[in-house]
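Hey, resending since the last one bounced:
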Amino acid sequence: MFLSRLVSAVGFLSARPFSTSAATYFPKLKSHSGTKKRWRSLSNGKFKRAHAGHSHLNVSKRPGRKNYLSQTAYSHGEQTPTLKKLLPYG
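The structure tokens again:
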């Protein structure tokens, strides 16, 4: 009798079912920090990034090269599935 009162007080025999919503999302996936800093996801499923080498030592670079380095680069080929694994939450 004491055990049944204890069990009902703790809530093991409650009428409400046990929620499994927290177990559905376990374990959380970790995003890759270096990828997170360099890539942004797009709505079409691809990723974009900036070109490197645009911000310093610019005296010796041609204007056309500077213009190219200022443009956005996009993921292509096998990069996109790899980036989706590294950034699982977009």
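The helical segments are 2-10, 21-24, 33-38, 63-70, 79-86.

Sorry for the duplicate.
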